[in-house]
Amino acid sequence: MKIERGKLIETLKELKGKGYKYLVKIAGIDNINSISVLYFVRDIDNNKEEVVEVELDPNDTALPSVEEVYKAADWYERTLYEMFGIEIKGRQIRRLLLEKWNGKGAPLRKNFEWGAPYETKQSKKAVA
Amino acid sequence: MLTFSTSAIANWLVSLLSSASIVKQAEGLAAYAIGVAILIMAFAYFLGWIERKIIAKVQARHGPTVVGKYGLLQNLADFMKLLAKSNFFPKSSDKLLFAVALPAMLALSIFLILLLPLTPSTGIGNMANGLLIVFALFAFMPLLIFINGIASGNKFGEISAQRSVIMMMSYEIPMLIVIASIGMLARSYDLVNIVESQAHIWYIFLMPLGFFVFFVAMLAELERSPFDLREADSELIAGWLTDVSAPYYTLALFLDYTKMFLGSLIVVILFFGGWSGYGLLPVFWLVVKALIFAIFVMLLRATAVRMKLDRLLRLGWLALMPLALINLIVAYLLFVM
Amino acid sequence: MLIKSLAKTAKSLKDPRFTIDYPNEKEQLSDNERYMLRLDMPTCISCAACERVCPNKTITMVDTPTEKGVKKMPQVGIERCLFCGLCQEVCPTKCLTLTKGYDFEAYDKREFVKRPEELEG
Amino acid sequence: MTTKINIGPIHPSTHGVLRLVVELDGDTIVGVEPHIGFLHRGVEKLAENRMYMQNIGYMEKIDYVAPMAYDDAYVAAVEEAMGVEVKERAKYIRTILLELQRIASHLLWLGTMANDLGQFYTLFMWTFRDRDKILRLLQEHAGARMFYLNMRPGGVVRDLPPDFEENTLQVLDYIEKRITEYEHYLESNQVFIERTKGIGVLSREMAIELGATGPVLRGSGVNYDTRSNKPYYAYSELGFRPQVMFVGDSFARYKVRMLEMKESIRIIREAFKKIPEGDAVGMPIRLIMPQAKNRIVTVSRETPRGEAFIYMIADKERPYRLSIRTPSFINLSLIDEIAKGSRLADLFAILGSLDLVMADVDL
User: What is the number of structural domains in chain A?
Assistant: First the structure.
């Protein structure tokens, strides 16, 4: 199910009302021309699944936070933020996996540059 | 404060000793002290080895095998390794107290062993109030742990120190009540009298309840599982020993087994008839009984799941306390009246 | 109560040990174990299939003098090896195989980079 | 006044590199904030840069306690992308091996949980010994103790060894006896009951809301198991029943895993009765540079820790995008909710009952 960014919260709320109470995963995909974010939700009692897809422009990737609908979204949104550089509006967000990471860009985007190996104190010493 | 209290006690003891009759000559005292020191060292060393081997056997492992025959020298090798490391105190620690507390604890436990009568004729503790003095001094142990924990300036040490004091509140009073009932049965607080009054029947058969209470309290005092809350390795890393560096850690290990020796000696003297036994030297029987008790405690360590602090408090006040009182009353009604 | 568990602990004192005294005893291994690599140099046809399939880029083809002149043969950096066995499966002449030898050690990390000659035998 | 203490990243009972910042009010926990990422390897990114079969070794290392579960989940995704059917005998073999792996993983968990509760490694060593027997069986088949790499699209790398059935049934008898023994051993210990019952309660609603998976979800009374709800392999033929407890505390989670082990043993025995003859060997390595049939693939597999969910976009040579939802990751995010209000010592009982593997959390 593909929807507009603006209708995300509304749709998810509607789905949750229908019984899709369980959030399985939020996954981001870099399609080069666009970035899509997938919300996998599940109705545990009736064993049904639904996918909600939001397509975003790579340069304008702000998304509303769905934490108010699904509490489980918290950590997924944080990984989304640091892996895809997708800004989550409406909540304070902190890095989760790469807490002290001083690289540039979003690692899971296709245009991510690997760059030079990360320099540590030891490696600097070894060079000198 | 610490040095003050120990010196005050020392003065008090000296005044007591001067009235004691058995050991009069200083030379005899020194010889005795050396003998006991060797005994303590040997016991602590082999207890360490036995614990490693027994727990390994319970867990279907080998235990130490490489250094020495049956890994007998493994502990020595470990001690050497630990002693070879540098000693330092963390920045946030109170260096004086931190440096003093652990050696003081070791000194205290060795001193307590010296006070106990190992045979009918030896022991400095052959005095009218031996039992009370031993436990008065023993009560300093949790306090020293508290001092060490707070002085280490580590949060885990701090929590451990708090636990130490809370634990003391839970088990100390029931233990003292049991001691009172022992004094009542023997009609004396003299340790030699207590042992001799058990010549016909051991106190464990007269007061099984009292023994249970005393045993639980002793486990808590010795930091043995399931009451090793202060050192709780899966919770507090090493509790009050978290910031202790290697040479001090050897002290701590040595202290652990010295305390174990002390605890088993006390239990044997109070409940298992001390040195009484047939043939052989009296010390032999005492040590064998202590060893059996120590092995039992080790098996318990391999079995038990650690108790929680609030549960221990409840156990202390709602189970041990009434049991100790019942024990006192029953013992009075049955054996004294 | 705790007594029951304690009895179980005491009973387990007579259980046999399951650990082995390692350097003296060794494990029995089945034939399809995947440990140290072995190269049969005469049958190697220098196809570099192993180099391409290696997920960790552990295998590199290096010039090796043989009886028939200098040929490219796989050199393995054992310290990065996953022991996944893909090279073994992909090898067309079955000259690169994983053997049962699981105890290898070195003082220097560089000794773990095995030349084709070292892999043989 | 509250104090903050730092548990980890180096701590005896965080099972790896987990850092918890715990806010304490006296001895009561006010809040727990997990800091993760110490073991982050970027598996998803690595997978995008390697060919399909090269990835399989990396997938196993996501969860080093039950590597075959991820091995299987990834290969299943590749199979679906290629449109390959799993051979009938291979289905049974996979079921047997995966259930053996589950027992091995749960045994390791049982030991570490007792350890977290303050037992001195005894149960840990015992369960380790029993787990070793299972690893031995898997080693016989796959050729490695831990990282098997025995799944191939369409089947397994080689058929079971000739005496596998006999040995397995023997080991299962042994383990069944042992599990019952351990159950008595722990449950006759009053202190163990006190430390797990009523500790770290997760209600049914919260479990669903927060997305708990696996035994944690089932311990809270939700009857959801991928093996029965989206049956794969031979599970539906073997009459698999999910194990559910309704209380939601640490003890319920413990009990669910114990029951699961028994259920696994039953299933394996059943599978040996029904296993068909025939070919079970999957494709050899070099055929697998697939002609993608389905571009978008979703696969759910029940690993010992919970549901692993793989979303894959298949490209010609390598996955275009491989997104994995690991069970430990989401189970760890519950910790704040569960641990709030309990004592510091309970935190470790709760952590133990969640069965976390840090590599699984950080991916």
Answer: 1
Q: What string of DSSP letters covers C35-49?
A: -SEEE-GGG-----H
Looking at the predicted structure, is the pLDDT value of residue B18 above 70? Answer: no
Chain B residues with beta carbon closer than 8 angstroms to that of D192: 305
D313/A29 Cβ within 8 A: yes
Q: How far apart are the first and last CA of chain B?
A: 44
Decide if B167 contacts B142 (C-beta within 8 A).
yes
* Alpha carbons A37 and A50: distance in angstroms, whole number: 14
d(CA B2, CA A120): 47
Minimal C-alpha gap between B121 and chain D (Å): 40
Within-domain flag for B9: no
The residue of chain B nearest to residue D27, with distances taken between CA atoms, is B159
C9 touches chain D (CB under 8 A): yes
Phi and psi (nearest 5°) for B229? -65, -30
Which residues neighbour C47 within 8 Å (Cβ) at sequence distance 6 or greater? Answer: C92
Residue to test with chain D: of B62, B225, B231, B306, most D Cβ within 10 A:
B306
**Structural domain harbouring A59:** 2-127
Confidence label for B2 from pLDDT (cuts 50, 70 and 90): very low
Strand partners, D309: D300, D325
Domain range list for chain D = 38-362
Q: Does a structural domain hold residue B155?
A: yes
How, if at all, do strands D151-152 and D28-35 pair?
unpaired
Q: Is a pLDDT exceeding 80 seen at residue D157?
A: yes
Average pLDDT (B125-153) is 82
pTM of the model: 0.88
The CATH fold assigned to D38-362 is: Cytochrome-c3 Hydrogenase; chain B (1.10.645)
Q: In whole angstroms, what is the distance from residue D356 CA to residue D333 CA?
A: 11
Q: Which residue of B has its CA nearest to D127?
A: B59
At B130-139, the pLDDT tens digits run: 788 888 888 8
Which chains are within 8 Å of B by 3+ CB pairs?
C, D
Domain that holds residue B244: 24-336
CA distance D318 to D55: 9
Q: Is the pLDDT confidence value at D340 over 70? A: yes
- pLDDT of D286 over the 80 cut: no
ipTM computed for the complex: 0.83
pLDDT-derived band at B22, boundaries 50, 70, 90? very low
Provide the domain count of chain B: 1
Q: Identify whether B4 is part of a domain.
A: no
C30-119 CATH: 3.30.70.3270
Compute CA distances B7 → B2, B10, D184, whole Å: 9, 5, 52
Residues of chain C with pLDDT under 50: none
- pLDDT for position D173: 92
Whole-angstrom Cα distance, residue D48 to residue A110? 9
Q: How open is the CA angle D251-D257-D260, to the nearest 5 degrees?
A: 140
- What residues have CB less than 8 Å from C60, skipping those under 6 apart? C51, C74, C75, C77
Q: Of C18, C30, C86, which is closest to D285 when you measure between CB atoms?
A: C86
For D228-253, write each residue's pLDDT tens digit: 888 888 888 888 888 888 888 889 98
CA-nearest of C118, C108, C18 to C76 is C118
- D189 to chain B, any CB pair closer than 8 A? The answer is yes
pLDDT over 80 (residue B126): no
Domain assignment present for residue B5? The answer is no
**What is the pLDDT, as a whole number, of residue B1?**
41
Parse chain C into domains and list their residue ranges: 30-119
Q: What is the pLDDT of residue A93?
A: 73
Chains B and A share 3 or more Cβ pairs within 8 Å: no
CB of B61 less than 8 A from some CB of C: yes
pLDDT(D191) > 60: yes
